[in-house]
Every structure is written in C-alpha cells, then in structure tokens.
Amino acid sequence: MEKLNKRIPMDIIPLSPDRKIIQGGMGVYISTPFLAKTVSMDGGLGTISGVALERLLAQILQSGDVGGHYRRALFAFPFPEFSDMVLDEFFIEEGNPKGLPKKVTPVFTVNPSRKLIALTVCANYAFAWLAKEGHQNPVSMNYLEKIAMPHVYAITGAMLAGIDFITMGAGLPLEIPQVMRNIVSGKEATYKVYVDGINIKSHTMRFHPESFFGGKLPPMKLPGFLPIVASNTLATKFMSLPKGSVQGLIIEEPTAGGHNAPPRTRFLGKGGKVVKDYGEKDVVDYAEIAKLGAPFWLGGAYASPEKLRRALSVGATGIQAGTIFALSDDSGMDPEIRRVLRKLGFEGRLKIRTDFDVSPTGFPFKVVGLPGTIADKKFYKQRRRICDQGALVSLYEKTDGSIGYRCPSEPVLNYINKGGKLEDTVGRGCICNGLIANTVLGNPGERAVITLGDDIGFLHCLMANSHSSYSASSALQYLVG
C-alpha cells in the first residue's frame, strides 16, 4: 500500500470548506456545462451530469450546435484527428432538415467501435471544457456507476479537459480512484462490469489512451473523488481505500431526487406480504460519519439556509442540492415543463413519489406525477416499448458463452427471450428516453420522465408568485443565507 500511495500524484486540491453548496448532477442534460459554470463561478461546486454525453453531443451537433459552443470546445481537443472525426461524422451546419432521420449513434457494448470511443472521449471533454471555460473555479462531473461500460473513456475525456472532481453514485464505484490514477500516469485504465451469468460474472473494460491516440497525453491533474453513499457502511468502505483515494463524501438521504439507495427496512404489509420501505435501518449516523475524518456534504431535502445550518451542526461541510437548481432558469430542462412544475409546486399541487419499479436499474426512483408524462398511467400504457438508447442495459451470459444485453424496459417478449423474468418488466419505464424528452434538446415521439426531490418548499422563498422564476445564482445566494 505504501508503494501505491507514492504513485498517487500530490496535486489533488481538496474542495475548499468555503464551497458549502454542491450542485447536484441531475438527470440527462439538466445539469448542463453552463449551469455548472454559473454555480462554480458564484462560489458553489458546479456539477455536470455525465450521463450519455456521447449521445447528447451527437444530437447537439446534428441540430447545428447553435452558438457554436461545442465546436469551440472540440477545436481545443488535444488530438484534433479524433475531434475532426466526430465533427465530420455528426455535425450538420444548417441543423437536421425536417423529416431527415438522424445519423444513428452507436450503442455501447463491451467492444465499442473506434468511432464510439472517440465520440465518448470528445463529448466528455467538450462538456467539461465548456463548464471550465474562462475561470479557475472547481467543477465536478457526475457519473452513474450503473452505466459502467463508458467509464474508462468518459473519465479520460473529462480529465483531458481538466475536470476537478468526479462524483458518482447508483452503485459501488470503488475502482474509480485507480482508474483516474492510471489515466494520469499514462497507463491502461480498466473497469469491471457486472455480468449476470454462471461462467461469466464480469467483463473488464480496457482503455489505453496513449495507444488509442497514438501519442503521449498532455500533463493532467488528478481529480478529487467524491463518492455518493447512503449508509455508514458504504462510507466506511470508501474511506478504507488507499490514502488519497477519496477527498470527501456526499451522503444522500431517500428524499433526494433521481435514483435512491434501495431501502434496507422490511415489514409485513397487507395480507402478510413483505414490503420494503425506508425506516430506522436507513438512517445515517452522522456522528460516526464525522469520525471518518473526511469532509462530507448532505443531500436530500436540504435546500434551505436552515437545513444548511443543520448540516453544519452535525459536522458536515455543507449540502448537495439538486431540485432547486433543476427548476432554475439556468438548467437544461425544457422551459415549458419547468414553468408548469414551478407553478404547480408554488401552488402546492405537485405530486412527487418514490417509484420502486419504473427504473430498469432496480433502484427506487423519484418520479413527478405530471399529466402527459409516463407517470400518467394512460400514457405509460400507450407508449410502445423500445430500447434504442441502451444506456441502462444489463449484461448477461448467453447460452453460447458470449455476452448479451437486455433491459427490463424493452419489449417484454424480447426481454424474456434473452432469459429475463416476466415479473422484472412490470411497471418499468424507459428512463433513458424519458429523461432526454425532459430537456431543452427534446426527444420527438417520447414522453418525458421527470425526477425531482421531495422538498420544493424553496419555491416560496425564490418566487413572488406562481408565474415568476429565478436564476441559479439567486438559488445559491438563498441557500447560503
């Protein structure tokens, strides 16, 4: 372990205690580079959502890249042969002519094509570069551990752009610190992906950036790592990694938006059926967290000055807040959806529930019950099941010994033919397509899936009436009192 610690570059800059607010990395393109930049420049830690950036960049380029922001970032990419490849393949100067099918973006497999690797690295570079453009404040990239196949390529792109921190939850990303050390040292980065099988239990994704690009990587700093956990056990597990692996912890309570940790409390419901729900076993002991000696931030219904003070009183450095920024004018949410959500929330008519079935990950997922979305049973039943984004597929061992891909949100018969269980498909929704449909980018033909945290009480503090709005800067100023 001593030798390992000596190999860790010593230029990791811890997140300053002055950065009391970490902006959540919400959804797909809700936490845009521009939102993250605003929050970081105003004194928080701005966070980019790192979900499916390769697909988003392809969509943005084919829509003409209004403003030229992503092309500006790609022109700065240190290996222009590859950024040119991406631009040549996907950029349409006038935007996509009406009725013309978009070029198909490859879906990830355990053997991604050279084109998909280049697109993924360039996309993560561009998003991180734009968030850091023109200032020296720290910026974070948020990934979901569950979406594991792109990690070695995505993190390489973000690091090439100088990303300062990586936050990650929705799984147990214990390998991430080593991935980052290998990249910064010019070595091969590896990451194990779980495979549901008898003979095959995992597959190792491998990426040697210097071999792929055909040259040495430019000097890079080692980002800090802030894992997102929901229990004392997981916090302790991360802090047992080699010294210098973790720069802090984000503790998310079940009231947070997006994916939540599965409940550990069980009780008997009607008819003697075993029911899972959040209870005593899911309560985090913050006194024990503080003893671990790392700074930590609390997330989940903490978006108020009073809750910030409460977090500080139990030893936290600050809070993570997502919903308050997702509903600000600076997020990537579709403006009309955002307007309706704010109005209903201000009027006390917005319903948010924890759905234990909708996400194909199997994790509980916060869903807003807005008419016209797939939270509406009528539109859920009308939607034709399709899995064309592929971000949340699970890997399984096929009868011939190869690796296959399935998702409980795909057509039911397809899933069963791949060895899946019928009961796993009940109530599942396409989170991939639904979250993209929730954004300003749009997703024609798809209904939105909207996720927010439980607490929206901040709206009355930031809005004069149900028709007004607020900025991310105003939200940050409100939170710090």
Architecture overview:
It is a single chain. The protein is an alpha/beta fold and 481 residues long. Helix content is 32%, strand content 15%. It has helices spanning 2-7, 33-41, 53-62, 69-75, 80-90, 114-132, 151-160, 176-184, 209-213, 232-239, 286-291, 305-313, 323-326, 335-346, 377-382, 412-417, 431-437, 459-462, 472-479, and strands at 21-23, 46-49, 139-144, 165-169, 189-196, 202-207, 224-229, 249-252, 265-268, 274-277, 296-299, 318-321, 352-355, 365-368, 394-397, 403-406. α2 runs parallel beside α6. The termini are far apart. The model is unreliable at 1-10 (pLDDT under 50).
Task: Summarize this structure as a short list of keywords or feature phrases.
481 residues, alpha/beta, TIM Barrel, eight-stranded parallel sheet, four-stranded mixed sheet, 19 helices, disordered N terminus
Lay out the secondary structure.
Layout: H1 2-7, E1 21-23, H2 33-41, E2 46-49, H3 53-62, H4 69-75, H5 80-90, H6 114-132, E3 139-144, H7 151-160, E4 165-169, H8 176-184, E5 189-196, E6 202-207, H9 209-213, E7 224-229, H10 232-239, E8 249-252, E9 265-268, E10 274-277, H11 286-291, E11 296-299, H12 305-313, E12 318-321, H13 323-326, H14 335-346, E13 352-355, E14 365-368, H15 377-382, E15 394-397, E16 403-406, H16 412-417, H17 431-437, H18 459-462, H19 472-479
Helix pairs in contact: 2-6, 3-6, 4-6, 5-6, 6-7, 7-8
